[in-house]
Each structure stands twice: as C-alpha cells, then as structure tokens.
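Researcher: Let's run the pair from yesterday's discussion. Sequence first, then tokens, for each.
Model: Starting with the first of the pair.
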Amino acid sequence: MKHLKKLTLLHSNDMHGDFLAEQVDENLVGGVSLLSGYISKVRHEEKNVIYAIAGDMFCGSVIDSEFHGISTIQIMNMLSPDIVTIGNHEVDYGVSHLLFLEKCAEFPIINANLYLKTNHTRLFEPYKVLRIDGMKILFIGVLTEITLMKCKMDKLVGTFVTLEDAAAEVGKICNTYNSTDVDLTVLLTHIGLEEDKKLAAMLDPAWGVDVIIGGHSHDLLDAPVTVNGIPIVQVGTGTDQIGRFDMMIDTDENRIDSYTWNSIPINNTTCPRDESIEEVIRSYKDTTDEKYGRIITKFVRKLTAPSHIEETEIGNLFADALKDALGVDIFLLASGSFRVKELGPVVTKGDFDECFPFDDSAHLMYWTGAQLRHALLRMLRDEALAGEHTEFYQVSHGVELEYDENTHTLLKLNFEGEPVEDDRLFTVGLQDFHYKNLKDSFDLTHEEVEKDHPQREIATSCVQVLEEWLQKGQHQDAVIEGRMVIHLTEENLRKKLERTV
C-alpha cells in the first residue's frame, strides 16, 4: 500500500519590486499585501506548504532602487518564503552588496553557480533540504552564465559557463543527497523557459529531479511544460499571480504520485490583505513619493515598448535622445533597459526610473560597416527572435535594416538613406554593460574594434542624459518608422503571436 502525503508548493518569480497593487476596473490586482494574504490563507488551510521564489526579487521599482534592495529584503522577510534562488538582477547592486543583503534575509538563499575564482569557494549554499511532515524536499539553485553577464565585470567572481556544466552540478548534488531518502527534488532556476527545456532534457532520470520552477523569461504558462518527464513551470512577472502545485508524494518510492498545477490570480476578490506589510510599504512609499513625484515631461500621447525584439516607440525616443545628445552616428540601446511596456503621457521622475532603472556610463567606439553588419546579425540570431532572453537593441534614427530569418541575411542595411559600405567608419554609442560584454552581445572583440581607434567614455550617466533631454522638451512623440523590418520564420511568427495574445 502506498504511503502518500500531500504537499502544496507555491512559487513566484521575477517579482522585480512589484510591491503595490494596481486598480484594474473595480478590482485591486497584485501587490505584496494581497500576495501575502493569499500565502497566509493557504498556509492556514493546508498542512504542508512551501513557498519558493525563483529569482529577481530586486529591481524594477523606485522603492527597491531608492533603498538598494534593503526595502525588498524587509518586505520579503514578511512574506517568509521557505527557499529562494537568485536571479540576474540580484547582482545589479554588486556582488558584495548582494552578500550584505543575504545577511539581512531571514530565509535561505541558494545558488550553485557563483564562486570566487581564487579558491573556487561558493558564495552561497548550492542546495537546501527542507524537512516537512517527515518528508525531505531537496532544492537546488541554478543559473547559467548567459543570465549573469554582469558578474563578468567582477574579476574575482566566476560562474558556470554552460547548461552542460549546470546539469553536471545538478547530477553531482543529486547523487550525493538522494541517498538520504529525499522525497522530492526541485530545481529553482533563473535561466528562461527555453533553457529550462534544454536543461531538463540533459538530466539523467536516475538523478530524480521531479520539478523545475523557473524564471527570467517572464512566461505566464497555462499549464506545465513537460520535458524528460519533468514538469517546468513559471508565472510571468510581478505579483499579479502565484504558481501552485498540489502534490501527492509517494514517500516509499520518493517521487510524485500525482499533482495539479495552476497559476492563481492575485486580486482583492480572492486574496485577503496583509495590513502589516501595507504599513511597511507605506513608510517606504512616503519617502519615495516626495522625491519621485516631480514631473519630468509630458508626451503627446502614451508611448509603448510592447516587445524587446522589435522596434518600439520608447526605444526610438530614447535611442535618438542618446545619439543626438552625445553626437554619435549610431546609438545601440539595449531593449532590456526598459522595464515597462508603457510610459506617459505625463512622465514623473518615478515613472522614468521604473521605465529605465539601470544607469550606466556611455562609451564611444569606432566600427567599420563590416563590423556593424556582423554585430547586427549577431543581435538577430534565431534564439533572440524566438523570444529567448538574449541581448537585443533599439537603433537610433538614420539606421534602416531589413532581415530575413529564413535565409539569415540582411536584405538591407542603410545609414541616412545610403547602403552601408564595409569600409565606412561609424561612431557607435554603447552602454557600459554592453561595451564590457562586447563579445557576448555583438560577437566582436575589443582588440579588433579598438586596434586603430581606441574607445572613450563620453558620458558617466545615461540616465542623466535622458532626463535632461526629456526635461527640455514637452509634447514629445515617437512613432514606429520601419527602422527594423524583420521577416520571421513561421515558427517564430507563431511564437510572437502567442506572446502578443
């Protein structure tokens, strides 16, 4: 006869400091007060409950940015997750600051990737075994280097390079601890849904990985994606929803006997409020409102950035502002710099900071037409157009490109109405992060690009440049001009339509 025990596994990912509920029609949606209310409700109703977070608690709100994550840790302490893994944005304030924040956390943070290069000492515990009602639940935290490019700027910190490395590490941990009668093994990953699928396919079934709870790609799933017998789940971004597994665990066979999974909407019709968390958030918000409530500018209308992998109105406006203010031929502005899909028409300091939260210096480089073509082809690679979280860029005015994904060719690359010649020299502006990760972003090396024309820093703060540019002109507008025309494959066109829906 089977010995079955019920486990309720709640999970969030990519919360990005989304503390406040939003008014949608007549309902309040999201926010950590209602999220906390739901978690507390489930913990009261069910016997065995675990709440896990799959990375990116930080960055995306002015409250988080103003207090450099300390506010987020205090609020997360009140949510009381049982286990958390880090995401790429956990290192935005620096690795040393992250280690300080970990000391402030009243919950375990796991990660099997980050280590000191000098002696290969891990910065975090790679796994944690949680014991509940006689069951042992093994959690392993996984990242890969593609999601941690910022760590490359720290010469003392290293990361695992490939999915293969990550899979091997998972195998080593599972082989070591499965002998301790682990009933359930969960990977907490922050690598994106497509990478989760690849990772699941690499895992040996004998290792006993039962579930992958992921993040990073912000996919809101209707049902788990199953690969190699492993259900993979993720619940979009922010606090508008929470994932819920209701599992029956076979404690004799150390496996899931059956489960249901749902993405639960967080709103005031189904979730009670947590007034204690509201009081803490209110104290932070009172501080930030005074500073961030001032109006920077007013657009003609609301501008949008609905996708990271196509030309957008906000992208055109900001890329043009940086090009014109800094006097370069072309500015390539990372689409990932924008953290909202809409901005305006009235833009406060707080609105701007939530839209563009990552400040960087700007570098001027000299690229030939051939190097520009090569860099753009790197940007337009298949995995980027499939919606995976690779780097993509908004181009400033003057650039026109047309690309056919079926043939992997640039059908057109013009600058100011003329075809780009391979030997023509262009001044190109880049944010510091992307300048330092030139090889990953553009498949160019500093040696080949800077051989005859050394780069130089032309602004210490892109945020200051953009703020000044916006403040000096009211009633600004931006439209889609056809700067980037991309002919997708049928498969990626279908994925694009699915993301739009």
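Model: Moving on to the second of the pair.
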Amino acid sequence: MENMKNEEPGLPSSSYKPLADGDIKKIAGEAFRILEKSGMLVYSKSAMAAFKNAGAVVDETKNLVKLPRSMVEDAIASNPSSVTLYSREGEYNALLEKNRVHFGTGGTAIYVLDPKTGERRSSTIEDVILCARMADTLENIQVFTINVFPNEIKNIDHIDVNRFFHALDNTSKHVMGGIYSLDGLHKVVDMAEMIAGGADALRKRPFVSFITLIISPFKIDGNYGDMTCYLAKKGLPVVVPTEPICGTTSPITLAGNILTHIAETLGGITLIQSVRKGAPGICGSVGSITNLNTMDHVGGGIERAMINSSVAQLAQYFEIPLYSTGGTSDALKVDVQSAYESAMSSLLVSMSGANYIHDIAGLMEADLTVSYDKLVIDNEILGMCRRVLRGVEVNDDTLAADLIIEKGPGKDYLDAEHTIKYMRKEFFMPKISNRTKRDANPKGIDALAKAKDFVQEVQQRKSESQLSSDVRGKILKVFPEIKIP
C-alpha cells in the first residue's frame, strides 16, 4: 500500500444537532448557576490562589471554590476562540475553531493487541514508537495523541518525558498527551523548547499540547490543578477535559451528563484564564454511559456520541475550541462490533462539528486496548466521514445540465472531459475496502487482511528520527532517563 497523503483537513460541519437552540441556552444558564451556587472542590494550592485572586468565592477550610457568573463569562470571553495545534512540518496543522473538524488518536491504553500474535499484552515504549509511526503515515489522522502507556517505566517522573520523546522522535504531526507528574511535565516542556529553539518559539507555534483533567464530579485535584496553572503561565495549549459517567459521577440522564460536562470544563477554562488572560484553553468532553449490569464505563454506546455531539454544540455556542471523543468500542477483538460502533460514533460526532475528536482511531475494549489493525480500519472510516463532511457541491459545473442536454437521451459520459475533471476528487477512494467482484478476488482478501499487511509494511520500513541529530543527541544527554529500546 502506498504512503497515504493528507487532503483537506479541518472540514466544517454542523449537520447533526441533538440539542435545540432553546436547550443550549437552558443548559448554559444552568451551568453558570451550578458553578456559582455549588462550585468546585479544589485541592491545588496554585489553583486555589489563582481562583481567589480572580474574584472567586473561596472557602479554604472546605477546599470549596464558587465561581460568580460574571467571572466565568469573563473567562469565556478572554479564552481564544481559535487555537492551532501545529505540526512541525506545517502540513497537518489542526485549526480548532467554530465547527472545523480534525481527527486523532488517544486513550493512553495500557494494552495492545500484538500485531504479530494478535494476543493482548501490556503496552511498552516500542508501542509508543510504532503507534507514532502509524499515525504519521495515516492521512486521516491529523494529531497524534499519545495512545499507549509505557508499562516498563516505573518512576512516575520519567513517564512523560519518555512518552513525548518517542512520540516526537517518530512523527512530525502535532503531539498531544496526558501528563503524570508536575516534574515530568517540566521536563517535557523543556524538551519541546529545545526542539523549538526557545520558549517564545514554542509558544508562538506549539507543536505539543497537554491534557489535564477535571475529576467528576466537580473536583480539581492537586496534581492536575498545579499542572494546569503551570501550562497556563507558559501560554501553551491545555485541554481541561471532564469524564462524567451517566449514573455514577453524573445524573443518569443524557441531559444531566451534558450539563455536568459543560459546567466542569468551563470551570477548567475559568482556572486557565484566572492564571493568564488569553492563554489557550481547550474544553474537553470524554464522558460516557454506565453498563447498568456491572456499573462499568461503556466505550461504544451510541449515547456517548450523542453526549459529545451535544457538548460540541455548547462549545460552539460559547466559541471555545473543543477536544471531543468518538470512534471507541467495547469489542474485545477487531470484528463487526468494533466496526459498527466506531463508524456510528465517528460519523455523528464529526457531523456535530467537534473541533478535535480524539480516541477516534485504534481504541477498543472500553478504551483499555489499542489495535494496530483497527488503526488502519478506522483511518478508512474517517476517510468516509470526511467525504460526508465535504457534502454535495452544487454549481453550474457540478450540475452539468448543459452536458446532459448536449449528450441527450441514451448517451453515456465515459469519455466526457467533465468526467475526467471530477472522477478522482468526487468520490472517497478506499485504501483497504474491497470493491471488486468475487472472480477478481478469488482468495477473498478482505479489509482486515489488508490492514494487517499495512501494519506489517510500516513495521518493516526503516525507522528514521523526525528530530535533527544534534537536537536528538542533546535531549538524550540532558534526559538520561529516556529509555531507548
């Protein structure tokens, strides 16, 4: 299979709207009321001080912060309505604004399905590397959100620098990742500044971004609060996602979960703006529904897509960039279930206009496991989603009424210049899907087999660093805790 190329990233869409306009305004109003009347628990001293200095009502004995509506509205107004996640080469920049849609990996899974044996095993640094190389190759993935955990790294302060180094070493696309310690975060930022040529250069064109977390329901813990404040001071893009689950950490109704989502993530945006006005904050929507038989988190429920699509409408209402979720599955192997669950949620959340949809390629087993084969299959699904987002272009040339009249009844269009002009760009051209008849494919080679072949092809290619040799050597000298497999 040939190398895949990027085409038309950031297509706009707002064709799926589960919420009516009146619903959006009601949910927004209730979110303001919750933050003002009930507030958030804050266990970070940095966050507590930032909120207090910005005008929040603070009860330090209870770790409780209440956010006046005017304070939250001011934060929304000062947060950038547009944030660019830069790639180092410039080809895959992801412009998060309005209803422009981009796709990426994610999940920080702790397992992978081994590409050789097909068996589930713990993920390693080598999987961080191969996932980055895969993402670098797949054209419908614009951002590499580091999607697996290096289980062999036991020191918590060494996890972040290992994950980000091996990601940056193996893809030139934008790298986003969750973080595990404040010390580790400092190292990653220092490393990124070395690559960029300084702090100002990184802030101007950030090719890395970070994910902290609001812990549902309505809690900012010490580590995530301190990390968020540090990134806001640095002026680097930071996502403040929330993960409420229907019936456990949020009300069981979709409406109650959506309200929890937007209120919590607005609390995170308010923290960012309390630290530094104009810092690039990104709302986050990750939650889902509950398996009522086990009370476990559900990854592939269609309601998850409905929730995230609704939050996308609210983010567009507030004009704040959004990090959303789609494409996930509860399937235990790459099968029919993994395909239909991923396809349904990918399409719905895409059609809602969510700006950056992470988790949308490769994840399964309720976000615990990454499959390399599924990465390739999901890339095909995303190509179809992007074709839907392009819509039907209607003008005199595409309607071709004059051509129809010229040809007249009973004539074909095979030799028409109009056909040659549009035949390569009008349709989505699949890379692994079968479109031949049985006699042309007597062995019955299917999409999964082609996906496996592509994974093997990427594995066998010579690995080349995406960093200059000088910078790479300097990084490895400054950070000896980086493990080279």
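Researcher: Give me one sentence on the second I can quote.
Model: The first helix runs from residue 21 to 37.
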